[in-house]
Design a protein that fits this description.
Layout: E1 6-8, H1 10-16, H2 21-33, E2 41-44, E3 52-57, H3 59-69, E4 73-75, E5 80-91, E6 94-104, H4 115-130, H5 139-144, H6 146-156, H7 162-179, E7 186-188, H8 195-211, E8 225-228, H9 232-240, H10 246-258, E9 262-267, E10 276-279, E11 302-304, E12 319-325, E13 328-336, E14 347-354, H11 366-377, H12 392-397, H13 402-413, E15 418-419, H14 424-435, H15 444-459, H16 463-478, E16 491-494
Helix pairs in contact: 1-2, 4-6, 4-7, 11-16, 13-14, 13-15
Protein backbone atom coordinates (compact mmCIF):
# COMPACT_ATOMS: atom_id res chain seq x y z
CA UNK A 1 0.00 0.00 0.00
CA UNK A 2 1.21 3.49 -0.82
CA UNK A 3 2.32 5.70 2.03
CA UNK A 4 -0.54 7.65 3.58
CA UNK A 5 -0.54 11.35 2.91
CA UNK A 6 -2.95 12.91 5.37
CA UNK A 7 -4.39 16.25 4.33
CA UNK A 8 -8.13 15.72 3.85
CA UNK A 9 -10.35 17.50 6.36
CA UNK A 10 -14.16 17.60 6.51
CA UNK A 11 -15.05 19.08 3.11
CA UNK A 12 -12.30 17.17 1.33
CA UNK A 13 -13.31 13.87 2.93
CA UNK A 14 -16.85 14.26 1.58
CA UNK A 15 -15.54 15.24 -1.86
CA UNK A 16 -13.27 12.20 -1.89
CA UNK A 17 -16.24 9.97 -1.06
CA UNK A 18 -18.49 11.33 -3.84
CA UNK A 19 -18.03 8.32 -6.16
CA UNK A 20 -19.33 6.15 -3.30
CA UNK A 21 -22.78 7.51 -2.31
CA UNK A 22 -23.32 5.29 0.73
CA UNK A 23 -19.85 6.04 2.06
CA UNK A 24 -20.41 9.76 1.59
CA UNK A 25 -23.75 9.58 3.40
CA UNK A 26 -22.17 7.63 6.26
CA UNK A 27 -19.25 10.05 6.60
CA UNK A 28 -21.59 13.06 6.44
CA UNK A 29 -23.53 11.65 9.40
CA UNK A 30 -20.36 10.89 11.40
CA UNK A 31 -18.80 14.30 10.70
CA UNK A 32 -22.00 16.13 11.64
CA UNK A 33 -22.46 14.36 14.96
CA UNK A 34 -18.98 13.54 16.31
CA UNK A 35 -17.98 15.49 19.46
CA UNK A 36 -14.90 16.99 17.75
CA UNK A 37 -15.90 17.81 14.23
CA UNK A 38 -13.55 19.47 11.79
CA UNK A 39 -10.41 19.48 13.90
CA UNK A 40 -10.83 15.84 14.90
CA UNK A 41 -10.60 14.15 11.48
CA UNK A 42 -7.95 13.93 8.80
CA UNK A 43 -7.85 11.38 5.97
CA UNK A 44 -5.43 9.90 3.47
CA UNK A 45 -5.44 11.96 0.29
CA UNK A 46 -3.81 9.21 -1.81
CA UNK A 47 -6.58 6.66 -1.34
CA UNK A 48 -7.96 5.61 -4.72
CA UNK A 49 -10.85 3.33 -3.75
CA UNK A 50 -8.65 0.28 -3.30
CA UNK A 51 -7.41 -1.06 -0.02
CA UNK A 52 -8.15 0.61 3.30
CA UNK A 53 -9.03 4.31 3.43
CA UNK A 54 -7.19 5.46 6.55
CA UNK A 55 -8.86 8.25 8.54
CA UNK A 56 -7.09 9.51 11.67
CA UNK A 57 -9.43 10.62 14.43
CA UNK A 58 -9.10 12.11 17.89
CA UNK A 59 -9.64 9.95 20.96
CA UNK A 60 -13.10 11.41 21.57
CA UNK A 61 -14.11 10.83 17.99
CA UNK A 62 -12.87 7.22 18.05
CA UNK A 63 -15.20 6.53 20.99
CA UNK A 64 -18.06 8.02 18.99
CA UNK A 65 -17.19 5.99 15.85
CA UNK A 66 -17.22 2.75 17.86
CA UNK A 67 -20.63 3.57 19.32
CA UNK A 68 -22.03 4.61 15.95
CA UNK A 69 -20.52 1.84 13.81
CA UNK A 70 -20.41 -1.00 16.30
CA UNK A 71 -17.46 -3.33 16.57
CA UNK A 72 -15.42 -3.71 13.42
CA UNK A 73 -12.15 -5.49 12.96
CA UNK A 74 -10.04 -4.33 15.88
CA UNK A 75 -6.26 -4.07 15.85
CA UNK A 76 -3.70 -2.52 18.20
CA UNK A 77 -5.99 -2.89 21.19
CA UNK A 78 -8.86 -1.06 19.55
CA UNK A 79 -6.79 1.94 18.44
CA UNK A 80 -7.52 0.92 14.84
CA UNK A 81 -11.01 -0.12 13.74
CA UNK A 82 -11.68 -1.38 10.19
CA UNK A 83 -15.16 -1.47 8.66
CA UNK A 84 -16.30 -3.02 5.35
CA UNK A 85 -19.01 -0.72 3.98
CA UNK A 86 -21.37 -1.05 0.99
CA UNK A 87 -20.36 1.84 -1.22
CA UNK A 88 -23.33 2.45 -3.49
CA UNK A 89 -21.03 2.27 -6.50
CA UNK A 90 -21.85 -0.54 -8.94
CA UNK A 91 -19.24 -2.10 -11.23
CA UNK A 92 -20.17 -5.02 -13.52
CA UNK A 93 -23.55 -5.26 -11.81
CA UNK A 94 -21.88 -5.68 -8.43
CA UNK A 95 -21.76 -3.16 -5.61
CA UNK A 96 -18.15 -2.32 -4.77
CA UNK A 97 -17.43 -2.52 -1.03
CA UNK A 98 -15.19 0.06 0.59
CA UNK A 99 -12.93 -0.57 3.56
CA UNK A 100 -12.55 2.36 5.98
CA UNK A 101 -9.97 2.18 8.72
CA UNK A 102 -10.35 4.64 11.61
CA UNK A 103 -7.13 5.16 13.54
CA UNK A 104 -7.02 6.84 16.94
CA UNK A 105 -4.30 9.47 17.18
CA UNK A 106 -3.38 11.70 20.10
CA UNK A 107 -1.94 14.25 17.71
CA UNK A 108 -3.72 14.72 14.42
CA UNK A 109 -0.77 16.53 12.91
CA UNK A 110 0.82 14.17 10.40
CA UNK A 111 2.83 16.77 8.54
CA UNK A 112 5.39 19.15 9.99
CA UNK A 113 5.15 22.46 8.19
CA UNK A 114 8.39 24.35 7.87
CA UNK A 115 8.97 27.97 8.82
CA UNK A 116 7.87 29.24 5.40
CA UNK A 117 4.51 27.44 5.60
CA UNK A 118 3.92 28.62 9.16
CA UNK A 119 4.58 32.23 8.17
CA UNK A 120 2.31 31.91 5.12
CA UNK A 121 -0.39 30.75 7.52
CA UNK A 122 0.08 33.93 9.57
CA UNK A 123 -0.12 36.09 6.45
CA UNK A 124 -3.30 34.30 5.36
CA UNK A 125 -5.06 34.82 8.71
CA UNK A 126 -3.93 38.47 8.84
CA UNK A 127 -5.42 39.06 5.41
CA UNK A 128 -8.63 37.35 6.45
CA UNK A 129 -9.20 39.48 9.56
CA UNK A 130 -8.04 42.79 8.06
CA UNK A 131 -9.14 42.67 4.42
CA UNK A 132 -12.05 40.24 4.70
CA UNK A 133 -13.35 41.60 8.04
CA UNK A 134 -13.56 38.13 9.60
CA UNK A 135 -13.98 38.33 13.37
CA UNK A 136 -12.48 35.46 15.37
CA UNK A 137 -13.45 35.31 19.03
CA UNK A 138 -11.41 32.17 19.78
CA UNK A 139 -8.94 29.91 18.03
CA UNK A 140 -11.74 27.38 17.59
CA UNK A 141 -13.44 29.95 15.36
CA UNK A 142 -10.59 29.50 12.89
CA UNK A 143 -11.36 25.78 12.82
CA UNK A 144 -15.06 26.52 12.28
CA UNK A 145 -14.23 28.88 9.40
CA UNK A 146 -14.36 26.28 6.62
CA UNK A 147 -12.70 28.45 3.98
CA UNK A 148 -9.89 29.51 6.31
CA UNK A 149 -9.19 26.10 7.78
CA UNK A 150 -9.15 24.36 4.41
CA UNK A 151 -6.74 27.02 3.13
CA UNK A 152 -4.45 26.48 6.12
CA UNK A 153 -4.50 22.72 5.49
CA UNK A 154 -3.31 23.36 1.94
CA UNK A 155 -0.58 25.71 3.18
CA UNK A 156 0.57 23.14 5.77
CA UNK A 157 0.25 20.21 3.35
CA UNK A 158 -1.67 18.42 6.08
CA UNK A 159 -3.53 19.00 9.30
CA UNK A 160 -2.83 22.19 11.25
CA UNK A 161 -1.73 21.52 14.86
CA UNK A 162 -3.83 23.21 17.53
CA UNK A 163 -0.72 24.98 18.83
CA UNK A 164 -0.44 26.90 15.55
CA UNK A 165 -4.15 27.72 15.46
CA UNK A 166 -3.80 29.11 18.99
CA UNK A 167 -0.78 31.13 17.87
CA UNK A 168 -2.59 32.49 14.79
CA UNK A 169 -5.50 33.64 16.91
CA UNK A 170 -3.18 35.38 19.39
CA UNK A 171 -1.12 36.94 16.58
CA UNK A 172 -4.09 38.42 14.73
CA UNK A 173 -5.52 39.79 17.97
CA UNK A 174 -2.29 41.73 18.62
CA UNK A 175 -2.05 42.79 14.97
CA UNK A 176 -5.52 44.35 15.07
CA UNK A 177 -4.88 46.06 18.41
CA UNK A 178 -1.28 47.24 18.15
CA UNK A 179 -0.33 47.37 14.47
CA UNK A 180 -3.77 48.35 13.12
CA UNK A 181 -3.04 47.80 9.42
CA UNK A 182 -5.21 49.78 7.00
CA UNK A 183 -8.07 47.96 5.28
CA UNK A 184 -7.13 46.51 1.90
CA UNK A 185 -3.54 45.97 3.02
CA UNK A 186 -1.56 43.29 1.24
CA UNK A 187 0.19 40.74 3.46
CA UNK A 188 3.31 39.82 1.51
CA UNK A 189 5.41 36.81 2.48
CA UNK A 190 7.47 35.48 -0.40
CA UNK A 191 7.42 34.36 -4.00
CA UNK A 192 8.19 35.72 -7.43
CA UNK A 193 7.58 39.47 -7.80
CA UNK A 194 6.77 39.77 -4.10
CA UNK A 195 7.85 42.73 -1.99
CA UNK A 196 9.88 40.30 0.11
CA UNK A 197 11.80 39.28 -3.00
CA UNK A 198 12.35 42.93 -3.94
CA UNK A 199 13.52 44.17 -0.52
CA UNK A 200 15.81 41.14 -0.12
CA UNK A 201 17.52 41.78 -3.47
CA UNK A 202 17.72 45.51 -2.74
CA UNK A 203 19.47 44.91 0.56
CA UNK A 204 21.86 42.19 -0.61
CA UNK A 205 22.74 43.80 -3.94
CA UNK A 206 23.64 47.10 -2.28
CA UNK A 207 24.92 46.26 1.21
CA UNK A 208 25.82 42.56 1.49
CA UNK A 209 29.63 42.95 1.33
CA UNK A 210 29.71 46.35 3.02
CA UNK A 211 27.86 45.09 6.10
CA UNK A 212 29.07 41.46 6.03
CA UNK A 213 25.50 40.15 5.88
CA UNK A 214 26.57 36.73 4.64
CA UNK A 215 23.95 36.78 1.90
CA UNK A 216 21.10 36.84 4.41
CA UNK A 217 18.43 39.53 4.44
CA UNK A 218 17.61 38.69 8.07
CA UNK A 219 21.10 39.83 9.08
CA UNK A 220 19.74 43.31 8.35
CA UNK A 221 16.00 43.00 9.01
CA UNK A 222 14.32 39.81 10.29
CA UNK A 223 10.78 40.74 9.11
CA UNK A 224 8.90 37.59 8.05
CA UNK A 225 6.01 39.35 6.33
CA UNK A 226 5.53 42.84 4.88
CA UNK A 227 2.24 44.69 5.20
CA UNK A 228 1.88 46.85 2.11
CA UNK A 229 -0.78 49.55 1.84
CA UNK A 230 -1.08 51.61 -1.32
CA UNK A 231 0.64 51.40 -4.67
CA UNK A 232 3.52 48.94 -4.39
CA UNK A 233 5.09 50.16 -7.64
CA UNK A 234 5.21 53.71 -6.28
CA UNK A 235 6.65 52.50 -2.97
CA UNK A 236 9.42 50.63 -4.80
CA UNK A 237 10.20 53.73 -6.87
CA UNK A 238 10.61 55.74 -3.66
CA UNK A 239 12.89 53.11 -2.17
CA UNK A 240 15.02 53.01 -5.31
CA UNK A 241 15.84 56.67 -4.69
CA UNK A 242 16.75 55.99 -1.06
CA UNK A 243 19.47 53.37 -1.16
CA UNK A 244 22.69 55.37 -1.15
CA UNK A 245 23.34 54.20 2.41
CA UNK A 246 21.71 51.62 4.67
CA UNK A 247 20.87 54.39 7.12
CA UNK A 248 18.97 56.28 4.44
CA UNK A 249 17.04 53.13 3.53
CA UNK A 250 16.23 52.52 7.20
CA UNK A 251 15.07 56.11 7.62
CA UNK A 252 12.65 55.87 4.69
CA UNK A 253 11.33 52.48 5.86
CA UNK A 254 10.92 53.89 9.36
CA UNK A 255 8.75 56.72 8.03
CA UNK A 256 6.79 54.32 5.82
CA UNK A 257 6.13 52.16 8.88
CA UNK A 258 4.77 55.10 10.84
CA UNK A 259 2.64 56.09 7.82
CA UNK A 260 1.38 52.47 7.65
CA UNK A 261 2.51 52.12 4.04
CA UNK A 262 5.19 49.45 4.56
CA UNK A 263 5.37 47.53 7.84
CA UNK A 264 7.81 44.67 8.27
CA UNK A 265 6.69 42.20 10.95
CA UNK A 266 8.83 39.54 12.61
CA UNK A 267 6.75 36.60 13.80
CA UNK A 268 7.38 34.16 16.61
CA UNK A 269 5.12 31.29 17.58
CA UNK A 270 3.09 32.37 20.60
CA UNK A 271 1.01 30.79 23.31
CA UNK A 272 -2.52 31.88 24.12
CA UNK A 273 -1.31 35.45 24.62
CA UNK A 274 0.84 37.37 22.14
CA UNK A 275 2.84 40.56 22.62
CA UNK A 276 4.03 43.31 20.29
CA UNK A 277 7.24 45.30 20.27
CA UNK A 278 8.56 48.03 17.98
CA UNK A 279 12.22 47.55 17.08
CA UNK A 280 14.45 50.27 15.59
CA UNK A 281 11.39 52.45 14.99
CA UNK A 282 12.24 55.56 16.99
CA UNK A 283 11.37 58.55 14.83
CA UNK A 284 14.70 60.27 15.46
CA UNK A 285 16.68 57.10 14.82
CA UNK A 286 18.29 57.34 18.25
CA UNK A 287 20.22 54.18 19.11
CA UNK A 288 21.58 53.18 22.51
CA UNK A 289 25.21 53.06 23.48
CA UNK A 290 25.87 49.90 25.48
CA UNK A 291 28.60 51.69 27.40
CA UNK A 292 25.85 53.65 29.09
CA UNK A 293 22.94 51.22 28.81
CA UNK A 294 23.78 47.66 29.84
CA UNK A 295 22.82 44.70 32.01
CA UNK A 296 24.57 43.48 35.17
CA UNK A 297 26.65 40.40 34.32
CA UNK A 298 28.64 38.99 37.26
CA UNK A 299 30.84 35.99 36.46
CA UNK A 300 28.43 33.74 38.37
CA UNK A 301 26.05 34.34 35.45
CA UNK A 302 28.31 32.01 33.42
CA UNK A 303 27.33 28.33 33.80
CA UNK A 304 29.30 25.20 32.94
CA UNK A 305 28.74 21.71 34.35
CA UNK A 306 31.12 18.76 34.18
CA UNK A 307 29.21 15.84 35.71
CA UNK A 308 29.10 12.71 33.57
CA UNK A 309 25.57 11.68 32.56
CA UNK A 310 25.53 7.87 33.04
CA UNK A 311 23.32 7.14 30.03
CA UNK A 312 25.51 9.29 27.79
CA UNK A 313 28.93 8.49 29.20
CA UNK A 314 29.82 12.17 28.90
CA UNK A 315 28.89 15.61 30.15
CA UNK A 316 26.59 18.08 28.38
CA UNK A 317 28.43 19.97 25.66
CA UNK A 318 26.77 23.35 26.21
CA UNK A 319 27.71 26.26 28.44
CA UNK A 320 25.31 29.07 29.30
CA UNK A 321 25.19 32.75 30.18
CA UNK A 322 22.16 33.85 32.20
CA UNK A 323 21.55 37.60 32.38
CA UNK A 324 18.76 39.24 34.39
CA UNK A 325 17.63 42.84 34.22
CA UNK A 326 14.71 45.12 33.32
CA UNK A 327 12.19 42.44 34.25
CA UNK A 328 13.63 39.88 31.83
CA UNK A 329 16.04 36.99 31.99
CA UNK A 330 18.15 36.30 28.91
CA UNK A 331 19.75 32.87 28.57
CA UNK A 332 22.43 32.19 25.97
CA UNK A 333 23.00 28.52 25.30
CA UNK A 334 26.38 28.10 23.62
CA UNK A 335 26.85 24.78 21.84
CA UNK A 336 27.83 23.10 18.58
CA UNK A 337 26.12 24.39 15.48
CA UNK A 338 25.85 20.74 14.39
CA UNK A 339 26.08 18.32 17.31
CA UNK A 340 25.85 15.28 14.99
CA UNK A 341 28.87 16.28 12.93
CA UNK A 342 31.74 13.78 12.88
CA UNK A 343 34.23 16.27 11.50
CA UNK A 344 33.80 19.21 13.88
CA UNK A 345 31.52 22.18 14.33
CA UNK A 346 31.82 25.81 15.33
CA UNK A 347 29.71 27.32 18.09
CA UNK A 348 26.27 28.87 17.88
CA UNK A 349 24.61 31.15 20.40
CA UNK A 350 20.94 30.32 20.98
CA UNK A 351 19.34 32.93 23.25
CA UNK A 352 15.90 32.90 24.83
CA UNK A 353 14.23 35.41 27.12
CA UNK A 354 11.80 34.94 29.98
CA UNK A 355 9.55 37.63 31.38
CA UNK A 356 7.31 40.14 29.63
CA UNK A 357 5.88 37.44 27.42
CA UNK A 358 8.81 34.99 27.37
CA UNK A 359 10.01 36.23 23.99
CA UNK A 360 12.23 34.02 21.92
CA UNK A 361 15.17 35.94 20.54
CA UNK A 362 16.76 35.52 17.16
CA UNK A 363 20.15 33.84 16.97
CA UNK A 364 23.11 36.01 17.82
CA UNK A 365 25.41 36.15 14.76
CA UNK A 366 28.53 34.53 16.20
CA UNK A 367 30.91 36.16 13.73
CA UNK A 368 29.78 39.60 14.88
CA UNK A 369 29.97 38.57 18.56
CA UNK A 370 33.55 37.39 18.06
CA UNK A 371 34.51 40.45 16.00
CA UNK A 372 33.29 42.81 18.72
CA UNK A 373 35.16 40.80 21.36
CA UNK A 374 38.37 41.08 19.32
CA UNK A 375 37.99 44.61 17.92
CA UNK A 376 36.53 46.46 20.88
CA UNK A 377 37.83 44.41 23.82
CA UNK A 378 41.20 43.11 22.53
CA UNK A 379 40.55 39.43 23.14
CA UNK A 380 41.83 36.62 20.92
CA UNK A 381 39.01 34.06 20.89
CA UNK A 382 38.30 32.49 17.48
CA UNK A 383 35.15 30.49 16.70
CA UNK A 384 37.20 27.87 14.85
CA UNK A 385 36.92 24.24 15.91
CA UNK A 386 40.13 23.29 14.06
CA UNK A 387 42.12 25.17 16.73
CA UNK A 388 40.99 22.73 19.45
CA UNK A 389 41.76 19.03 20.06
CA UNK A 390 39.27 16.59 18.55
CA UNK A 391 40.07 13.54 20.69
CA UNK A 392 41.83 12.39 23.84
CA UNK A 393 45.10 11.73 22.05
CA UNK A 394 45.25 15.30 20.74
CA UNK A 395 44.11 16.71 24.09
CA UNK A 396 47.34 15.49 25.72
CA UNK A 397 49.77 17.67 23.76
CA UNK A 398 47.63 20.21 21.90
CA UNK A 399 48.40 23.96 22.36
CA UNK A 400 44.81 24.31 23.56
CA UNK A 401 44.78 20.93 25.25
CA UNK A 402 45.25 19.61 28.76
CA UNK A 403 47.91 22.03 29.99
CA UNK A 404 46.08 25.07 28.63
CA UNK A 405 42.85 24.15 30.40
CA UNK A 406 44.47 22.70 33.53
CA UNK A 407 46.87 25.58 34.15
CA UNK A 408 45.00 28.59 32.73
CA UNK A 409 41.33 28.25 31.84
CA UNK A 410 39.87 26.11 34.62
CA UNK A 411 41.85 27.63 37.56
CA UNK A 412 40.55 31.01 36.43
CA UNK A 413 36.93 30.01 35.77
CA UNK A 414 35.93 27.41 38.36
CA UNK A 415 36.22 29.69 41.42
CA UNK A 416 34.04 32.41 39.87
CA UNK A 417 31.44 30.78 37.57
CA UNK A 418 28.39 28.65 38.43
CA UNK A 419 29.46 25.02 38.13
CA UNK A 420 28.94 21.59 39.67
CA UNK A 421 32.61 21.23 40.61
CA UNK A 422 35.33 23.53 41.88
CA UNK A 423 38.00 20.88 41.33
CA UNK A 424 40.24 21.36 38.30
CA UNK A 425 41.32 17.71 38.49
CA UNK A 426 37.69 16.50 38.44
CA UNK A 427 36.88 18.72 35.48
CA UNK A 428 39.95 17.53 33.55
CA UNK A 429 39.17 13.90 34.36
CA UNK A 430 35.61 14.27 33.06
CA UNK A 431 36.84 16.00 29.90
CA UNK A 432 39.00 12.94 29.25
CA UNK A 433 36.12 10.53 29.94
CA UNK A 434 33.80 12.49 27.68
CA UNK A 435 36.27 12.39 24.81
CA UNK A 436 35.81 8.64 24.69
CA UNK A 437 31.99 8.63 24.66
CA UNK A 438 30.25 7.31 21.52
CA UNK A 439 28.15 10.47 21.15
CA UNK A 440 31.15 12.77 21.20
CA UNK A 441 31.82 12.24 17.46
CA UNK A 442 34.96 14.43 17.71
CA UNK A 443 32.61 17.41 18.00
CA UNK A 444 30.83 17.79 21.34
CA UNK A 445 33.73 17.83 23.81
CA UNK A 446 35.66 20.09 21.46
CA UNK A 447 32.74 22.55 21.51
CA UNK A 448 32.66 22.38 25.31
CA UNK A 449 36.32 23.40 25.29
CA UNK A 450 35.55 26.22 22.87
CA UNK A 451 32.73 27.46 25.12
CA UNK A 452 35.03 27.39 28.15
CA UNK A 453 37.71 29.26 26.23
CA UNK A 454 35.13 31.87 25.25
CA UNK A 455 34.26 32.24 28.95
CA UNK A 456 37.97 32.54 29.74
CA UNK A 457 38.38 35.40 27.26
CA UNK A 458 35.32 37.20 28.65
CA UNK A 459 36.58 36.71 32.22
CA UNK A 460 39.58 38.89 31.36
CA UNK A 461 37.32 41.90 30.81
CA UNK A 462 36.69 44.43 33.52
CA UNK A 463 33.23 44.32 35.06
CA UNK A 464 32.30 47.43 33.08
CA UNK A 465 33.49 45.98 29.78
CA UNK A 466 31.87 42.62 30.51
CA UNK A 467 28.49 44.28 31.05
CA UNK A 468 28.91 46.18 27.80
CA UNK A 469 29.96 43.14 25.76
CA UNK A 470 27.21 40.79 26.96
CA UNK A 471 24.65 43.56 26.38
CA UNK A 472 26.07 43.81 22.85
CA UNK A 473 25.25 40.11 22.44
CA UNK A 474 21.66 40.67 23.58
CA UNK A 475 21.19 43.52 21.11
CA UNK A 476 22.71 41.47 18.29
CA UNK A 477 20.38 38.57 18.97
CA UNK A 478 17.33 40.83 18.84
CA UNK A 479 18.58 42.72 15.74
CA UNK A 480 18.31 45.93 17.75
CA UNK A 481 20.60 48.67 16.48
CA UNK A 482 23.25 49.98 18.89
CA UNK A 483 26.35 52.10 18.45
CA UNK A 484 28.66 49.26 17.39
CA UNK A 485 26.18 47.74 14.91
CA UNK A 486 23.85 50.53 13.87
CA UNK A 487 22.41 49.27 10.57
CA UNK A 488 19.60 46.92 11.67
CA UNK A 489 16.35 47.81 9.93
CA UNK A 490 12.98 48.83 11.44
CA UNK A 491 10.35 46.19 12.15
CA UNK A 492 7.57 45.24 14.52
CA UNK A 493 7.77 41.97 16.42
CA UNK A 494 4.82 39.77 17.42
CA UNK A 495 5.85 37.12 19.90
Amino acid sequence: MAKEYYSLTQTDILNKAKPYPKVRELMQDILNNAPMKKAGFIADEKWNGKGNWMIKVSEKNMSYVKRYMGEGKSTKGGDIMTYEIPSGKVVNKKEVPVSIRFRKSRKIEPTKAGTAEQEKGSAYIFDRVVSKNVNYKSWEDIVADVEAYDSLVKIFNGDVPDSWLISYYAQQKVLLKEVQPPKKSMFDHSGSNSFMEYITKLCLNNFNKQLSLGGKKDSWNPADIWIISGNQKQIIQELEKSTTTIHELNSVLRQMYHDKRVMGISLKKTGKVAYYEKVNLEQDGLIPNTKDYNYPVPMRSFVADFSIIPAEGMFTQDVKIIVSGSGKTFTFQIKANSSDSTTGSNLKFEPTAKGAGMARLGKAPVDKVVNILKRDFNQTFENNYSEYPKNLEEFTNHPKGENYFKLKVLPTLLPIITTDTKSVDTAIDNIKKSFGAPKDRTTNVRCKLMGLDFFYNVSKLSEEDRREFITDMIFLAQKKAFTKVDYFGPFGKIY
